[in-house]
């Protein structure tokens, strides 16, 4: 029962790490899959397989080498010097992405709840700080609540789309895009998202004693991501091409299903932003704690303060410069992960299980042999 619970926590955290705000709004799915018409269904199946394969491999490899942070993992893949540079670049991207997400949280409070923009930022930062004090267990518990709600909403949207006149479009939708672009798109998508998700998946794997929950958690997590991709594509393709004009395409669908579904959807978008923000700050803190001789108790608020400052100035222009570079780097990273040989169990830098389990009581001297 304990292993089953741990497996579900790992699967939910995997899903929650990949399914960020861009996924929840539908823009990522629209750009990487739905716009490719009839090819989208096949590419989603392919992406699901890659998420299962590489996500599971990353977690198992991270556990076997005893990687404390994604920098340890990158140094294993690329070597000490190159791995350190890649990790530093990833750090910049993570801070930029989290600044944008924090700004998105403020926009939700301002546009949909009628509260001040700064109120959304401050509440998100405070809530994140409190959850981060619980460490990796807080992230696991958070995703164990958010992801089942997201899966439930996906089911509701599927059932409501079944009666739509365009429900069959996901198999017949035309496109002007080439088959080559359609085939490359899911690999770009999986590589980028796995490159970002290592910030939380690597330390989570490191704190998992048994490999079996990682294997089954990776499989269930990959299947869950694939299901949500297919559900969103199924719904959006039914409303093509009109849905292309919406900034939040999935929101335009959810808002037609009544006030209750609309409220649930808004809450889920915020929770997605919140959970991803917390997970990324946790990963960044672990990396900085290794690079700097400073306590993580000081690093966490410093990183969140940095994100808060950048969220005031529209960091998107700088991010637009770095995003394509990180996308190209993610392809190289994914290829290195594919080619990386698996480290045999017990022959890695991972600490023995005795270091992960509660210390046993010392044996009285009189009973020692």
UniProtKB/TrEMBL annotation:
Residues 347-369 are annotated as: Disordered. The chain crosses the membrane at residues 36-54, 85-109, 115-132, 139-159, 179-202, 214-236, 263-285, 297-315, 321-339. Keywords: Membrane, Transmembrane, Transmembrane helix. It comes from the Bacteria. InterPro entries: YkvI-like (IPR038728). PANTHER family: CONSERVED MEMBRANE PROTEIN, MEMBRANE PROTEIN. This is Membrane protein. It comes from Paenibacillus durus.
